[in-house]
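Q: Please design a sequence for this.
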């Protein structure tokens, strides 16, 4: 069993700000990674299938449904953090070939040192800008592409455009699945534009989120599941409804986007800043 490396909080300056690894008081081998005070990842070294954050559980549900249980996958993770989902895939789908692209080299080194990966996990980490890395990749190389990139608390504009979505779709296998984390709040202007932008490249899609977030009542995470074939809506709905914090699946994305056009590079913007008090009660 994995053991806690230290009971102390680790604080370091990394390229993207101040990184903290905070011990979880409820789980002896678990840690939360914060960047400039915002929770980015939660990892239990002894149980990588324990997923603390609800949006990560929604993304993991989509991964679970991307292929029969246990079948290895080729997975591209854009955004690394503490490597929560790569560890999850390695545990649930042994033999998977995974590549992680994370721009913050000092953060990668900190995570590798303090939260070491299991041996023979099949996880390769590349320090690079996500878009530049994707543009250099071969066509149809991945079964799953996970987009969860944040600079501080915002997704950069160059990863929120139609041109980038086309590149992400290009490296996805014909029956592959894109899973994107979109953070937004009322009136969901950014989320509507992001859904339209992703659907222009991968038209078969749905959204998974808390009902209050989907209705534009509060800030939160919306998970986009998209591809060239229909997503597994029934099973995603069942899993979302049965979560610790129940969510729902939205399939009427024409209504959700309300005619918003895909966003080109020329007008792309970063995701909105979260409210100041959003993380005040998070571990």
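A: Design:
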């Amino acid at each position: 069993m994995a053991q806690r490396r230290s009971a102390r909080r680790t604080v370091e300056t990394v390229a993207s700000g101040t990184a903290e690894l905070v011990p979880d008081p409820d789980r002896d081998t678990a840690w939360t990674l914060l960047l400039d005070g915002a929770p980015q990842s939660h990892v239990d070294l002894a149980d990588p299938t324990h997923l603390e954050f609800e949006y990560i559980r929604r993304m993991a549900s989509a991964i679970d449904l991307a292929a029969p249980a246990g079948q290895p996958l080729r997975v591209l993770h854009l955004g690394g953090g503490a490597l929560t989902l790569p560890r999850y895939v390695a545990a649930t789908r042994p033999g998977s070939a995974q590549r992680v692209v994370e721009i913050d080299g000092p953060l990668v080194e900190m995570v590798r040192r303090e939260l070491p990966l299991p041996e023979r996990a099949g996880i390769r980490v590349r320090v690079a800008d996500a878009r530049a890395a994707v543009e250099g990749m071969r066509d149809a190389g991945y079964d799953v592409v996970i987009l969860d990139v944040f600079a501080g608390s915002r997704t950069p504009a160059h990863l929120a455009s139609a041109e980038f979505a086309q590149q992400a779709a290009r490296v996805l296998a014909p029956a592959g699945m894109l899973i994107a984390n979109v953070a937004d709040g009322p009136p969901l202007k950014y989320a509507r534009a992001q859904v339209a932008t992703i659907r222009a490249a991968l038209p078969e899609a749905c959204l998974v989120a808390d009902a209050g977030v989907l209705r534009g009542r509060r800030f939160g995470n919306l998970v986009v599941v998209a591809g060239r074939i229909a997503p597994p809506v029934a099973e995603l709905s069942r899993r979302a409804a049965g979560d610790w914090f129940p969510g729902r699946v939205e399939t009427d994305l024409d209504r959700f986007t309300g005619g918003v056009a895909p966003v080109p590079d020329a007008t792309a913007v970063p995701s909105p800043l979260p409210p100041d008090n959003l993380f005040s009660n998070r571990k």
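Q: Thanks. Anything notable?
A: Residues 189-201 form the longest helix (13 residues). The CA atoms of residues 258 and 283 lie 36 Å apart.
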